[in-house]
Specification:
The complex is a heterodimer. By secondary structure, chain A is mainly alpha-helical. Chain A has 5 helices and no strands. In chain A, helix 2 crosses helix 4 and helix 4 runs antiparallel to helix 5. Classes of the chains: A mainly alpha, B mainly alpha. Chains A and B meet through helix 2, helix 3, helix 4 and helix 5 of A and helix 1, helix 2, helix 3 and helix 4 of B.
Chain lengths: 123, 131
């Protein structure tokens, strides 16, 4: 070890060249959500408390159904990556790995459930 | 050895010693609202699933969401969404190098806090008018 050059010691210890990927994805999803949120809010919220038949007829239309589907996918992927930052800050060791796996699975499961519900009403 | 006294040297002060500032409060609020919105998102998915399943299941989910407690959760969620949206736009703005000075950072922090309340009331009025 003592005779290694500085170059040799540093080789292979560099970045994986993917350090900005998480941040870039958060920027992309937040920009998308900033546009989607008002559309979703003003299509979804007025349907709360409405009769069941009216809700089914409403989400059978293309625009509310597509907005809701996009919102669900973007929200849960944004959550999956956002909560990852939270977990990496406060949870360590094996507990971190388990929490990350759990939140990732929860995100995909919730997105799939929401998409199934929209598809069933829309088609 | 350059630094033998590793055990009892003074450590840098931690959170508890700092006065709360709008920059730190608005930052932690972004994290709290963003992660707490999971509850709201799951409630929305549950409501949609119930609507897609049967009239009786829809009656249960819709009843929970439009109850007094449900409405309280949804209005709080709306505020959280408005705050997180404004704070997120602030992040995108900062990521492009805009207004990094302390004075501006503090002004933007207050803009997020006050703006989120204004936006929540505005959204409630619009939704109330639509339904």
């Amino acid at each position: 070890m003592a005779y290694m050059t500085d170059r040799k010691r540093a080789e292979g210890m560099g970045s994986a060249k993917e350090g900005t990927h998480h941040h870039w994805w958060m920027m992309v999803s937040s920009a998308g959500l900033a546009v989607l949120t008002p559309f979703f809010l003003f299509t979804f919220a007025p349907m709360l408390g409405k009769p069941h038949a009216e809700v089914l007829a409403y989400f059978a239309q293309p625009f509310p159904a597509i907005i809701a589907a996009l919102m669900i996918v973007a929200t849960f992927l944004h959550f999956k990556n956002g909560v990852q930052a939270l977990i990496e800050d406060y949870v360590h060791g094996t507990a971190r790995k388990i929490t990350l796996i759990a939140t990732t699975c929860l995100s995909y499961a919730a997105a799939a459930t929401g998409l199934f519900a929209i598809a069933r009403m829309a088609l | 050895m350059p630094d033998v006294n590793r055990g009892n040297r003074p450590l840098s002060p931690h959170l508890s010693i700092y006065r709360p500032q709008i920059t730190s409060i608005s930052s932690i609020l972004t994290r709290i609202t963003g992660n707490a919105l999971l509850i709201s998102a799951l409630l929305v998915v549950w409501w949609l699933l119930a609507a897609a399943t049967s009239p009786s299941y829809f009656a249960v989910a819709d009843g929970v969401l439009t109850s007094v407690f449900g409405k309280l959760v949804l209005v709080l969620s709306l505020w959280g969404l408005c705050y997180h949206l404004l704070a997120g736009l602030r992040h995108l703005y900062w990521d492009n190098g805009g207004s990094m000075e302390i004075g501006w950072a503090e002004k933007l922090g207050w803009a997020c806090v006050i703006g989120s309340v204004v936006l929540t009331v505005l959204c409630l009025l619009i939704i109330g008018g639509m339904s």
